[in-house]
Structure formats: structure tokens, C-alpha cells
Amino acid sequence: MAGTPTVTTITMSNGNAVVNFTYSGGASTDILYLERANSFATTGEQKVVRRVTRGSLTSITDYTISNSGARYWYRIRSTNSDGTGTIYSDYVSVDTVCQNIVTLAPYDSPATTTNLDVVQSRSGKKGRETQLMEFAGRKRPVSEVGMMRSQTVSLAWWVETTQEVYNIEKLLLDNDFWFRDNYGRSFHGSCADVDVSDYIGGYNMSATLTEIDGEGIN
């Protein structure tokens, strides 16, 4: 079996959640998965936001938490280096304070965040795979729902320099990324197009970000 993690305290630092824990038994090569759930989530809806090697760590920082004013729950799952011998800690909650923090980060480096300081507009959409069917003898259609869920967010923001345009285009278009805002959104995403409008003194940029399957890997 892997070692046993015990979450002791969770503190907020610069908009990030620092999860402190103790660890008994196991080896330094054990793998730790930091899992986060919304306060209304049910079993199976938690999301892995970090994956790290145990080493001598006593804390793991979540750089993807939404500073929305909501409550979130964390637990640590530990395994042997080969993925066997799973052990779970208990859940511990943390309350956030609503802050104007909107960030993008490379998927494989969530600590390397880019702050979008001047977000002009933002709108989101969530969906679930649903098919309506009609049957003889029924006056209304029936629905069949599937496992697939979708989430998108459309953003428009302002930057002042060409270098900022280059940096954000590269971040959004070259690979996957982590997105979070202060309205409860936090996801592993992908982007197909970035629009840029030129103005005196800067640029208006906009894009639609789509949540894709995937969890924290480092």
C-alpha cells in the first residue's frame, strides 16, 4: 500500500489554495493526486488538479482554484509509483473570497500564470448530452441524457503591447491550458481562434475557450 496522507489545513495565498498535509508510511516515490470538488459535487465529480511525486513534500498548491467566494473541498489520493495501493485522505474544505483574478496557464505548468487584468466581457455556457425522442402514444417527447458534458466561455480583454498579444496567442493556440476566473470557472481547455482588433494604445483580444477532457498532471 501507499502511504497515508492526512490533510491538516488549507490556506489561501495570492489567490491560490495551499493544501498542507502529513504523510505516514509509504515511500518518497509515491504519487500524490490533489483532488478538488465544488461544495455541491457528488462522489465521482471531483477533479484532479495536481499530480506530484511525494518526495518530502508537506504541502501542494492548487493554482487553478476559482476565487469566486464559494466553498471547495480537497482531498489527497496516494498511490505507489506504479499506480497501485490507493489510499485517500478525508476531505477538508476551504472558503474563498471573491477576487478579480482571471488567469491562463500552460497545462503542464499551472504555476506559470498569465493574468488577464482588463477583462471587458465574459459569458459562459454549459451543456449536457441530451437527445429528444418521440414515441407513439406520448403527447410530448422524452429525453435521454448521456455522460458527455460541455462548457465554454467567451472572453474579451484589452492589452497594451504587441508582446502581450504574442504571448497570449502562443499560450492559447500552441497547446492546452488551464483557465480560471472569479465566477466559479476552472478547467483544462482548448482554443481554436483568437481575434485581435488594433487600436491606438493597444489591442482588443477575444476568444472562446472550450473545456476538454483532462486533469492535473504536475
Brief overview, please?
By secondary structure, the chain is mainly beta.
Describe this structure in words.
With 218 residues, this protein is mostly beta strands. The model has no long low-confidence stretch (mean pLDDT 92). Strands 9, 10, 11, 12, 13, 14, 15 and 16 form an 8-stranded antiparallel beta sheet that branches. Helix content is 6%, strand content 54%. It contains 1 helix and 16 strands. The relative contact order is 0.18. The protein has 2 domains: 4-95, Sandwich (Immunoglobulin-like); 103-211, Elongation Factor Tu (Ef-tu), domain 3 (Beta Barrel), CATH 2.40.30.
Percentage of residues in DSSP E strands: over 45%
State the end-to-end CA separation. Answer: 22 Å
Helix-strand sequence: EEEEEEEEEEEEHEEEE
Indicate the CATH topology of the largest domain: Elongation Factor Tu (Ef-tu), domain 3
The biggest sheet amounts to: 8 strands, antiparallel
The structure class reads: mainly beta
The CATH class of the largest domain, by name, is Mainly Beta
CATH architecture classification of the largest domain: Beta Barrel
Detail the poorly predicted runs. Answer: none
Number of strands: 16
Total domain count: 2
Radius of gyration: 20 Å
DSSP helix count?
A: 1
Helix coverage percent of residues? under 10%
Q: State mean pLDDT (0 to 100 scale).
A: 92
Globular, elongated, flat, extended or rod-shaped: what is the shape?
Answer: globular
